[in-house]
Amino acid sequence: MPTAVTDETFDRDVVRHDIPVLVEFWGSWCPSCRMLAPVLAEIEQERAGELAVRTINADENPATARDHHVLALPTMILYRGGEPIRTIVGAKSRTRLLADLDDALTPR
């Protein structure tokens, strides 16, 4: 299960992380977020050591959601070196999400 972060721990657990981090902004009322949870758990296990997966409840942590311009849930933001490099809005299939992540993380 991905680690939950908060407004207070976001900088430490995401921005200063030494590997890329995929953060899912979610809400307890969001059915698409619930559907995405097992997909993120699988990706976290498959990519252990090369990609960290974190979740943040946008309703309980409005400052971080606001600061990262999250307007819809679920929104996933991929960070590398503390900087957002890809934003994915809406639930995606495992295959599509992995393709988006691989595309964003492949050196150009």
What would your notes on this structure say?
- 37% of the residues lie in helices and 25% in strands.
- With 108 residues, it is an alpha/beta fold.
- Strands 1-3-2-4-5 form a 5-stranded mixed β-sheet.
- A hairpin with a 2-residue loop joins strand 4 and strand 5 (83-89).
- The longest helix is centred in the middle third of the chain and has 16 residues, at 31-46.
- It starts with a strand and ends with a helix.
What can be said about this structure in brief?
With 108 residues, this protein is of the alpha/beta class. It contains 4 helices and 5 strands.
Based on CA atoms alone, the radius of gyration comes out at 13 Å
Number of β-strand runs: 5
Provide the structure class.
Answer: alpha/beta
Question: Which regions have little confidence, pLDDT < 50, spanning 5+ residues?
Answer: none
Distance from N terminus to C terminus (CA atoms, Å) equals 31 Å
- The share of residues in helices is 25-40%
What is the mean predicted local confidence, pLDDT?
95
Number of helices: 4
Strand content: 25-35%
Question: Shape from CA axes?
Answer: globular
What's the order of the H and E elements? EHEHEHEEH
Q: Order of strands across the widest beta sheet?
A: 1-3-2-4-5
Largest beta-sheet details:
5 strands, mixed
InterPro entries: Thioredoxin, Thioredoxin-like_sf, Thioredoxin_CS, Thioredoxin_domain
Protein name: Thioredoxin
Family: Belongs to the thioredoxin family.
Keywords: Disulfide bond, Electron transport, Redox-active center, Transport
